[in-house]
Structure formats: C-alpha cells, structure tokens
C-alpha cells in the first residue's frame, strides 16, 4: 500500500488519550504501521549517558502510536482529511501526487513517472 502519511506531515490525533492534538510526524514506522509524533504520547524512560550528548537519567520521549489513529491535516484547507493519490502531467512528465480528498488540492509530489 502507498504511504499516505510521511515524515514532516502535520497530523491530528483522532483516537486515544492524545485525541485532538495536532503534531508533526517525526518518523513513520512502516513495518509496525505506527508513527512517532513530536511531543505526543510521551513516556518516561531511563536513558544511559552518552558522553558529550546527554547525561543519564529519566527522560520523556515520544512513543509511537497507530497510524490509523491519525489523519493528515491538509496544508490547503487546514482540515483533517483522507489522502488520495493521482497522476498529474507536468510538462512532459507524469508525476504522482498526494491530494486532499476534502478540497482536492495537491499536497505534494510523491514521485516522477516515465
Ligand atoms: Zn484540503
């Protein structure tokens, strides 16, 4: 299946204890179907010291949440939306893009096709 949510996207949490929060996607864990969101689903974790990087101790870090629990916030209409894919022509090239199913605006280019 195509990847509807990508790193750097802004998403809205639809379910769970963080419901209603808007956050940036830090990482997509494709195999587990999870995403890591900035400052969402924080858990306390003991981390070892890394010289010149951090001291050891208890840190709050983000834990992944299910990708099905988030929706992309469309950069155009600013609404949580489902994402579609389509092929558009750009000069001589065909480009696969993600688009918003609410306002139909192109979100970004995914890849170029021959
Ligand atoms: Zn939209």
Q: Which ligands appear in the coordinates? A: zinc ion
The proportion of strand residues reads: over 45%
Number of strands: 11
CATH architecture of the largest domain: Roll
Q: List segments where confidence is low: pLDDT < 50 over at least 5 consecutive residues.
A: none
Output the CATH topology of the largest domain.
SH3 type barrels
Characterize the main sheet: 6 strands, antiparallel
Subunit organisation of the chains = single chain
CATH class of the largest domain: Mainly Beta
Describe the 3D structure:
The two termini are 20 Å apart. This protein has no helices and eleven strands. It has strands at residues 10-13, 22-29, 34-37, 42-47, 57-62, 65-66, 70-73, 80-81, 83-90, 93-100, 106-113. By secondary structure, it is mainly beta. It has two domains: 1-73, SH3 type barrels, CATH 2.30.30.30; 81-114, no CATH class. The model has no long low-confidence stretch (mean pLDDT 94). The radius of gyration is 17 Å and the shape is elongated. The strands form three sheets. The chain has a six-stranded antiparallel beta sheet with strand order 6-3-2-1-7-8, with no helix packed on it. Strands 9-10-11 form a three-stranded antiparallel beta sheet, with no helix packed on it. Zinc ion is lined by residues 74, 76-77, 79, 81, 100, 102-103, 105. The site of zinc ion (ZN) has 9 residues, from loops.
């Amino acid at each position: 299946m195509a990847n509807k949510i990508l790193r750097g996207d802004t998403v809205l949490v639809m379910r769970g204890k963080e419901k209603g929060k808007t956050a940036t996607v830090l990482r997509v864990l494709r195999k587990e179907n999870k995403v890591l969101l900035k400052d969402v689903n924080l858990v306390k974790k003991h981390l070892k010291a890394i010289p010149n990087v951090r001291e050891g101790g208890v840190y709050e870090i983000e834990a992944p949440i299910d990708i099905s629990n988030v929706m992309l916030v469309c950069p155009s209409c600013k609404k949580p939306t489902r994402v579609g894919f389509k092929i558009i022509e750009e000069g001589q090239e065909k480009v696969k893009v993600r688009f918003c199913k609410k306002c139909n605006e192109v979100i970004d280019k995914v890849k170029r096709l021959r």
